Amino acid sequence: MPYGTNDIGSHNATYWDPTFLTQSSLLSKQKVATPLYAVIVVNQPIEEKRQLLNLCNRAKAIVYADGGANQIFHLNKTDEEQQTLVWRLPLQCNRSNFESLMIKSQFPIAICGDLDSIEPEVEKWFASKHVAIVRDPDQYSTDLTKSLKFVKSIAHDWASSTQQGDSKSSGATEDTLNAVVVGGIGGRFDQGFSQLHHLYTASEDNSAFEGRLFLVNPQSVCFLLRKGSNHIRTPVGPGLFGECVGIIPIGRPSVISTKGLEWNLDGQLTEFGGLLSTSNHIKRDWIEIETSERVLLTIELDTSRPSNP
Fold this sequence. Notes:
The chain has helices at 23-26, 49-58, 68-73, 79-85, 95-103, 120-128, 143-161, 166-169, 189-202; strands at 5-8, 11-16, 37-41, 61-65, 109-113, 132-135, 178-182, 213-216, 220-225, 228-233, 241-248, 254-259, 268-270, 277-281, 286-291, 295-301. The chain is of the alpha/beta class and 309 residues long.
């Protein structure tokens, strides 16, 4: 199935294949077609280092959102892990040659934000490793928003240079780079709600970000479904997904119909203070969700190691 939007009968359906975020895919020794994505690490404690490393190993870029760099600095790292998380850019690194490194299919890492949270010792250490530090003083946007805008600013050059191979097989367009936010759901409740807010606003504002945005932690992955028909690949099993799924109308009430769940909805209104579909169970490898508004989908990750990675 393609990773995009296609005509299904008399209406359009948006296809989602989040299996590239599962342990089975990340640990696979076989070549796995995945959408182009950048990893953004926000300023929250890293619960599972291995998940972060696996995601970064297949990412096309890594951005530490301001204080996210503190989390990496204080993480207990082996030399090999440090090579993944702190790639040594050339000594003379500025914005122009940083972009040219991306075009040449290098593996860039940057720190982005207003830099009011990064510890002085941390900034100095990353600078000594020749990591690009991009300061954005705008006080009307968060560090996550700044990071998303930064990823968008380099996405066109990067994706155009890598439109051969995986980008075609995954269905990604040549000018789209998706984002996987690590640490976006966890830690302080207010910061968690802030990340969900930015997930919601970014989905309707292409000036901020054009790709698809996923939030992950060791237990789950979540993303915002589009209005209309959504088909989501959801294989349940070791190293793939657990059975639990939730459909949350975080913006406004939504009328939802589903197929492939244990307790399907049939044109029912869902809203806070009314009906919510949480702790539902996946019963098919592909589920279908028709929604009148954008809704948050959360899927449980199965953390058991796959038998044949």
